[in-house]
Design goal:
Layout (H helix, E strand, L loop, with lengths): L2 E5 L10 H10 L4 E4 L8 H7 L8 E12 L2 E8 L6 H12 L1 H14 L6 H8 L6 H10 L6 H4 L20 H10 L3 E4 L13 H9 L4 E5 L5 H14 L2 E4 L19 H10 L6 E2 L7
Parallel strand pairs: 1-2, 2-3, 5-6, 6-7
Antiparallel strand pairs: 3-4, 3-8, 4-5
Helix pairs in contact: 1-2, 5-6
């Protein structure tokens, strides 16, 4: 089985619609794909509806990537197979989403103060119906020729954490997020915990404390982790009893990584599904239909 547990669609900051993502995941030879848009589950219904039209059988894992922060450090929590209508977690996700537009508008204003000829209409056009975020602003900077690529916008000079044009947004305390995901029947995995190129990362002791609070796993195999970081994270996970996942963090054309470039071991995936009680993976008939 080929399993990719971290992807994004136009429901947040990816460039493929949820249906397009499902079709591309099947065409890429994946058996399981998780849709984990930022702080939203809006793409799930479209993705589920597309499963039976995919070129081969594919199972969808519903999820979200939840924005968190601890002591000024941003971190992301992948939440899988939770009940999307559970009131407490839904309320917090809505608070995060509601803060996205004013935050992005403030970042545009900062960039204009720095002499960048960006405007809100450009960013809104790029975001479309998705939850607006920094990748949309980064794409605008690429369009304007300010930076050569989206990743080059995520630097201290521009919109990285603490950068000249960075604005903080409402983010959950990760310990609260772990608790809320578990109460909603979900499974939580710390996304790209050693991605230092994105900004500051939390100490390993924080990961251990999160594990003690109920965190289920950490994402190890990721494009932003080099070999030593992966080895270190695997050792940490073994020491404190965390599951280890691998995922593409696919954003369509916004990133160079392809679907299935990094994958999760089937046994780990099986354990994630065993722990979840809020929702269940959705199998599609796809290419098996006669």
């Amino acid at each position: 089985m080929r399993i990719d547990l971290h992807t994004h669609s136009t429901a947040s900051d990816g460039t493929d619609t949820p249906a397009e993502l499902v079709h591309k995941a099947a065409a890429a030879g994946l058996d399981v794909v998780a849709l984990t848009d930022h702080d939203t589950t809006r793409g799930h219904a479209e993705a589920i509806a597309a499963l039976d039209e995919a070129p081969r059988a594919l199972t969808l894992v519903t999820g979200a990537e939840i924005s968190c922060a601890l002591d000024g450090v941003s971190l992301h929590l992948l939440a899988y197979l939770f009940d999307p209508q559970e009131p407490a977690l839904l309320r917090e996700r809505e608070l995060v989403r509601d803060d996205r537009v004013p935050r992005a508008q403030a970042m545009v204003a900062k960039l204009r103060e720095l002499g960048v000829p960006i405007d809100w209409e450009q960013v809104a056009r790029i975001a479309g119906d998705g939850s607006v975020g920094r990748p949309h602003i980064a794409t605008a900077l690429v369009e304007l020729g300010v930076v050569p690529s989206v990743s080059d916008a995520f630097t201290p000079q521009w919109i990285a954490d603490g950068g000249r044009a960075h604005i903080t947004k409402h983010e959950l305390d990760p310990f609260t997020a772990v608790r809320l995901v578990k109460a909603a029947g979900g499974v939580s995995v710390f996304a790209h915990p050693a991605a230092a190129k994105r900004g500051r990362t939390v100490p390993e002791q924080v990961i251990a404390d999160l594990a003690a609070a109920g965190l289920d796993g950490i994402e190890v195999d990721h494009m932003d982790h080099d070999g030593p970081a992966r080895e270190r994270l695997r050792g940490l996970a073994a020491d404190i009893g965390l599951l280890t996942t691998g995922s593409s963090d696919y954003h369509g054309s916004r990133k160079t990584v392809g679907l299935g470039e990094y994958t999760t071991d089937p046994e780990i995936y099986g354990e994630i599904t065993r722990r979840a009680t809020g929702a269940f993976p959705v199998p599609g008939a796809g290419g098996r239909r006669t």
